[in-house]
């Protein structure tokens, strides 16, 4: 079981399972403000390489993070299913969604390819990482691993995806727009 202060007083947690590229990840549903189908994203010049651009979300300008780029998923496949070649062909045809989170009083959008499911799990099912666990995803972004029947999935902490410097850069970009 994961030793996380966040889950010490509860028995169950609601989770959102989503797909980026060929990989499926999980986040705590309480972190999610809204899930929307991706619309027109405006690219910002001189932006960080994994920021796809800005999006007008209900009159507020938000940055959209491309998780596939940020997590370096172009280079690695954590899990390859029997249908991977079919999935690769269909990857470019999938609808894209933006998961909107509030991170340090800023709304941030995260691009994902597919929303798989919303589920409820016992907190005891979230296990910590062993020192030998290997993944291309930086360890500080991982809350734990959930072992589903079909395969384990990494539980991400999207709030930690942005470093302080990156948050400052985003604030600068937003200031330059006004």
User: In the CATH hierarchy, what is the architecture at level 2?
Assistant: Beta Barrel
List unreliable stretches of 5+ residues.
84-93
CATH topology label: OB fold (Dihydrolipoamide Acetyltransferase, E2P)
Helix content: 10-25%
Beta-strand content: 35-45%
Describe the structure.
- The chain is mainly beta and 178 residues long.
- The protein has one domain (5-177): OB fold (Dihydrolipoamide Acetyltransferase, E2P).
- The chain is built from three helices and eleven strands; from the N terminus they run E-E-E-E-E-H-H-E-E-E-E-E-E-H.
- It has helices spanning 67-70, 84-91, 164-177, and strands at residues 12-20, 23-28, 32-37, 51-57, 60-66, 97-103, 106-112, 114-122, 126-127, 142-147, 152-156.
- A hairpin with a 4-residue loop joins strand 10 (142-147) and strand 11.
- Residues 84-93 have low confidence and may be disordered.
Per-chain topology:
Blueprint: E1 12-20, E2 23-28, E3 32-37, E4 51-57, E5 60-66, H1 67-70, H2 84-91, E6 97-103, E7 106-112, E8 114-122, E9 126-127, E10 142-147, E11 152-156, H3 164-177
Parallel strand pairs: 2-11, 5-7
Antiparallel strand pairs: 1-2, 1-8, 3-6, 4-5, 6-7, 9-10, 10-11
Top keywords for this entry?
single chain, 178 residues, mainly beta, OB fold (Dihydrolipoamide Acetyltransferase, E2P), six-stranded mixed beta sheet, five-stranded mixed beta sheet, 3 helices, 15% helix, 40% strand
């Amino acid at each position: 079981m994961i030793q996380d202060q966040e889950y010490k007083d509860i028995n169950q947690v609601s989770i959102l399972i989503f797909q980026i590229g060929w990989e499926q990840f999980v986040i705590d549903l309480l972190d999610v403000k809204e899930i929307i189908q991706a619309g027109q994203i405006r690219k910002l010049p001189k932006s960080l390489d994994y920021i796809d651009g800005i999006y007008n979300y209900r009159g507020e300008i938000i940055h959209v993070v491309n998780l596939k780029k940020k997590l370096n998923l172009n280079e690695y496949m954590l899990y390859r299913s029997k249908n991977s070649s079919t999935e690769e062909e269909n990857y470019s045809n999938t609808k894209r969604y933006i998961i909107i989170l509030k991170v340090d009083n800023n709304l941030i959008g995260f691009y994902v390819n597919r929303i798989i499911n919303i589920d409820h799990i016992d907190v005891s099912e979230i296990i910590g990482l062993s020192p030998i666990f290997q993944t291309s995803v930086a360890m500080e972004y991982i809350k734990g691993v959930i072992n589903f029947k079909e395969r384990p999935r990494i539980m991400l902490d999207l709030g930690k995806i942005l470093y302080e410097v990156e948050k400052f850069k985003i604030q600068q970009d937003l200031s330059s727009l006004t």
